[in-house]
Prior knowledge:
By secondary structure, this protein is mainly alpha-helical. It has a single domain (3-354), classed as Alpha/alpha barrel (Glycosyltransferase). The protein is built from twelve helices and 13 strands. It has helices at residues 3-19, 48-60, 65-77, 81-84, 105-121, 126-138, 167-186, 193-207, 247-260, 292-305, 308-318, 342-354; strands spanning 90-91, 97-99, 148-150, 157-159, 165-166, 218-220, 223-224, 261-262, 265-266, 274-279, 282-285, 329-331, 334-336. A hairpin with a 6-residue loop joins strand 3 (148-150) and strand 4 (157-159).
Amino acid sequence: xxxxxxxxxxxxxxxxxxxxxENGALVASNTDLNIYPTTVKDYRYVWPRDAAxxxxxxxxxxxxxxxxxxxxxxxERVEGLSEYGVxxxxxxxxxxxxxxxxQPDQNGLVLQAIAFHFAYTExxxxxxxxxxxxxxxxxxxxxxFRGISEDLWEERHAFADAQEIxxxxxxxxxxxxxxxxxxxxxxxxxxxxxxxxxxxxLKARALASFNGxxxxxxxxxxxxxxxxxxxxxxxxxxxxxxxxxxKRWKKTLKAIEEGCVTKDGLxxxxxxxxxxxxxxxxxxxxxxxxxxxLNFEAAIVYKLLGDRRKANxxxxxxxxxxxxxxxxxVKNGKPISILPLAWSxxxxxxxxxxxxxx
Length: 358
């Protein structure tokens, strides 16, 4: 185990521990750390998406109490969840929602985290799983999510009246429902027919995004987004809706390699400008850096594809760090934006497990 790996591994456990609060809330970054930059957005909030990956990483690292506390926090504290069955954008640590956009993938990813936790511990939270699975069904009309939904990067919106849908959102929810269906079978219960039907429709809608060149990040009745997005990597892992050898996937990967790769690793999409810095209460966009979490995600995908050379390259790029802490972005070999970011550390742990390093 090399020195850099040991340092980042130790810091990753520290970050997850510091981001898991006494009441069970699991924040994206703990601003109490002295290294947290003063110039960037406050990330001491709960994004269920980030928390889901942190829960999975905690299980890999043997920190099983972290996801259990978070699942309880969701049930006991999250404002409006018991009524509507879906998460809003993000929450204060006491459970009050901070921003209210509907991001469907967060339901799907927390469902995956619940199933992931069960695989490690044989402990589960069936009440939360049923609530979130029913919430997906309730907000799905067969073609798109009802009303207006927001993408995982919180920059774009899809509209139900145009049958628009974000591929990442559809895939995350499909996988979440499929995992819940299997969990129900394992514990000796019959999964709801509505879950099975909706999972099938969501998977079909996600895969229908292929435009001949790549899986588009958003598509609708009269629209297909022409910009490639690195989040399409997740279709292979952890969503598992596409096999690495699929011809459509190979074209998608090529488009990502041609449009999103910099010397520091993967941008979210070509010409990404978001850098995380706040000036006079506004985002200052000066040109984004590569995202370590995407580098680790790519390392997993390349490993599944059987390309060890590229997997190791992306792994090493992901380990660009400052005293062992991983940031949201890296630019010119230096961390920028949020530092540390729990999602980056979580993807490090998950990639380490998938690549056989722990």
